[in-house]
Amino acid sequence: MIGGKLLEAKNVCAFYGATQVLHGLDLNIAEGGITTLLGANGAGKTTMLRSVSGMVRTTGEIRFAGKSISGRATEDIVRLGIAHVPEGRGTFVRLTVEENLQLGAMTRRDTKAIPADIDRVFGYFPRLKERYRQQAGTLSGGEQQMLAIGRALMLRPKLMLLDEPSFGLAPLVVQELFEILRTLNKEEHVSIFVVEQNASLALDLADQAYLLETGRVVMAGPAHEIRQDENIRRSYLGY
Amino acid sequence: MELFIHQVLAGIATGGIYACMALSIVMIYQAIDHLNFAQGEMAMFSTFIAWQLIQWGMPYWVAFFVTIGVSFVAGVFIERVVFKPVHNAPILSHIVIFIGMFAIINSLAGFTWEWTIKSFPSPFGTRAVLGEGLLSAHDAGMIAVTLLVLVFLYIFFRYTRIGLAMRAAAANPESSRLVGIRVGWMLALGWGMAASIGAVAGMLIAPVVFLEPNMMLSILLYGFAGAVVGGLTSPGGAVVGGFAVGIIENLAGTFIPYVGREMKLSIALALIVAVLTVKPSGLFGRRIVSRV
Fold first, then answer.
1. Do A106 and B161 touch (CB under 8 A)?
2. Integer distance in angstroms from the first to the last C-alpha of chain A?
3. CATH code reported for the domain at B2-278
4. What superfamily would CATH give domain A5-237?
5. Any chain B CB within 8 A of the CB of A140?
6. Which of A72, A74, A110, A121 to mutate to test binding with chain B, by most B CBs within 10 Å of its CB?
7. How many C-beta atoms lie closer than 10 Å to residue A222's C-beta?
8. Where are the domains of chain B?
9. What is the mean pLDDT of residues A167-193?
10. Do B174 and A90 touch (CB under 8 A)?
11. What is the pTM (predicted TM-score) of this model?
């Protein structure tokens, strides 16, 4: 089920103005898998996702499905099937839940299939259905995260980038959310690249893991192996 | 009582002008999230283009739609050439550019067409439809066109994908890019539409106030008042606000001693202050609710 390389990053450096945040990152994301990127605050996790989406200045090469996407505009990268759920969820607060979902399908040409896809999103997130016509800014944090994932699904993405989906949510809500991510990966065949501070949670979900420290990959491998590592346990899992 | 009704009707007639202008102001506000101080001058310039086309012998309605088209292209052009380079600049830079555009467009019109006052034809004629000298056919036509534009905008923004994309791009550019919306072009499109609606407003207003480079000076102020009264986020509210300003201005000028004709403009300003104090989002504006 887990196939070849869907996303391939080679020697990626990223810059905000003159400040370098990523220092030659190498990373692979397998097709059909769930890959996680762990690390402390400021390690460069968000920047890595933003590099993939073309939202920061980078050097090095990023390839998606065999084609180089380095230097391309965000709008064009989205069209290749990369859905990015940004830090802070990126909700369109003034628009309704329905409109938020419609926006997720903005690049699609098969407009007839969109209502069915909205229904599918409601299948995963029934609570969004209850709030269909509500202003999205009035949703709770968990509901907004669901909406953000729903919006990403509307693209029918090959790869979903998730930036700290657990941030600021109650443990029960997080459990529910990660369960749905697992289902999406299995049933919708969406490859997932998730950035998390909550290492324990992310290692349970993922099959591959990378550990980032100050803009460099310091450890990589299957999630269950990383979980066993003595240093990881002490520094990131806390037991 | 009769005087009161007369003044209300006269207020509706002038209110039509303000409603038209307020609508174009709200339109650009929706698209770019700023107030465009040069909006009135752009409308004036468009009207001069229409005037020139008619002078060259073009039939009125052909000139009307050609002007709308030309204004649309000019609006897109202004965004791409003037505003795209300063997109990330602070809001003050934008305001300075708006003021600069105001002066440039104003002078350019004066330079090209001279500062003399010109008459501009009305497609609806000037005969009275309601009472002598109260509501002319042109007033009625102007109100009808304003409402038509309003309906068009409502349908466009509510029910079309591109309208939704424009609203999203104005509200949250970063998220919009992440769903694949070409934000820059949405802004340009918003400018184009605002310029077109401004052109319609200018062409409808010119027969009443006569065509000259400063024709929009006070009307822009009333238009702002209408837009603020109705709510900057609500096109329908802007139209209602425009009519309200027209009616209030007329009633106050007639019934409140000392106000008279000279003080009418202050009423618009007083209205802006009053509404912003009591209800900052305007009578029909949407209050933005968000949880943190």
1. yes
2. 33
3. 1.10.3470
4. P-loop containing nucleotide triphosphate hydrolases (3.40.50.300)
5. yes
6. A74
7. 13
8. 2-278
9. 92
10. yes
11. 0.84
Buried-state track A103-141, b at ≥16 Cβ within 10 A, e below 16: bbbbbbeeeeebeebbeebbebbeebeebeeebbbebeb
The answer, for A168 touching chain B at a CB cutoff of 8 Å, is no
- Amino acid at site B45: F
In contact, B161 and B34? CB cutoff 8 Å: no
Name the token pair of B32: 């770019």
Ranges of H-type helices in B256-290: 264-278
Instruction: Please report, as a single letter, which amino acid is at residue B42.
Output: M
With an 8 Å Cβ cutoff, are A93 and B177 in contact? Answer: no
Mean pLDDT within B164-193: 91
Reported confidence tier of residue A35, pLDDT bands at 50, 70, 90: very high
Q: Is the minimum CB–CB distance between B158 and chain A shorter than 8 Å?
A: no
CA nearest B227: which of B191, B176, B276?
B276
Q: Is A16 on the interface with B (CB under 8 A)?
A: no
Residues B112, B70: Cα–Cα separation, whole Å: 17
- A102: nearest Cα among A114, A119, A89, A120: A114
pLDDT over 70 (residue B199): yes
User: What pLDDT score was predicted for residue A51?
Assistant: 95
Comparing B272 with A100, the larger pLDDT belongs to A100
Q: What amino acid is encoded at B89 in this protein?
A: A
